[in-house]
TrEMBL record:
SUPFAM superfamilies from the UniProt entry: lambda repressor-like DNA-binding domains
TM segment ranges: none
Location of the HTH cro/C1-type domain: 20-60
Domain of life: Bacteria
Protein name, entry field: Transcriptional regulator
GO molecular function: DNA binding
Length: 270
């Protein structure tokens, strides 16, 4: 049966938060009291207890002391870790590491596998609400590690189609453009540009990815600002495949695309 993947908070967050709530309730400690003792607002404590936010070491240690848990809550620190990817993307990241082929179309942003560190930091650092510097560095490290897909052995066949708006984004600089050219030199990587004047309706409906694993399972990813859908439904996979084929048919070829990007690099030097 086709599977629809909906990510949620990590299980360790939910379990540790639930245990913190149980111990707090048993000890007749209010959220306000725990929040004041650990320097968090009651709403933040509530989010931790519900597994929406990661229970921090400070909150766990404070709860352990206030609730007389004898180290049982503090022990959760060894198991609760900050996830490197947003919850909605974790299923896709798992299958990406098993991929033998990737077909990727982007409308506005450089695909994560082709981003420079400077581009990553610009994206992560300017998100809303502003993340902590530690969070930005964790996400940059995680995304950089993902790029191993491009150099893996045996090679993963990667085809990227980029709408022209991707190349003209505010975070795109000469370094990023050159990095795209260098990436396109790999024998397992194809990069094609879709200029504005060649856009077809199929190209304006948002980004998407088709992925095939080593077990020959095929998945389709539809990605939005706050919602992602990863599906193995053959019908949805087929629709994505048809749409990608239409875009590829009107996009510039790899050689023409490289020349297009090279002209942009030259414009940056003027």
């Amino acid at each position: 049966m086709p599977v629809q993947y909906n990510s949620s908070s990590p299980g360790t967050w939910r379990y540790s938060g639930n245990q913190m709530k149980r111990w707090r309730t048993k000890a007749n400690v209010t959220r306000e009291e725990l929040g004041a003792a650990s320097n968090y607002s009651p709403d933040t404590i509530k989010a931790m207890e519900q597994g929406v936010r990661m229970p921090t070491a400070r909150a766990l240690d404070t709860a352990d002391e206030l609730c007389h848990a004898d180290g049982l809550l503090s022990a959760a620190k060894d198991y609760v870790k900050r996830e490197p990817f947003p919850a909605r993307a974790q299923d896709f990241m798992l299958y990406e590491q098993q991929a033998i082929s990737l077909w990727w179309y982007e409308v506005a942003l450089v695909p994560g596998l082709l981003q420079t560190e400077a581009y990553m930091r610009a994206l992560f650092g300017n998100s809303t609400p502003p993340p902590e510097e530690e969070t930005v560095e964790e996400r940059v490290a995680a995304r950089t590690a993902r790029q191993e897909v491009l150099t893996r052995r045996p090679p993963v066949a990667c085809s990227f189609m980029l709408y022209e708006a991707v190349l003209r984004g505010p975070q795109v600089d000469k370094e990023q453009l050159v990095h795209l050219l260098d990436s396109g030199q790999r024998n397992n990587v194809v990069i094609q540009v879709l200029p504005y004047e060649r856009a077809v309706p199929a190209a304006l409906s948002g980004p998407m990815v088709l992925l095939e694993t080593s077990d020959h399972e095929r998945f389709a990813l539809s990605d939005g600002q706050q919602v992602s859908q990863l599906s193995s439904d053959p019908k949805l996979v087929s629709v994505h495949g048809e749409r990608l084929s239409m875009i590829r048919a009107v996009a510039l070829g790899p050689g023409e695309s490289a020349s297009f990007i090279e002209r942009m690099v030259n414009d940056c030097e003027r």
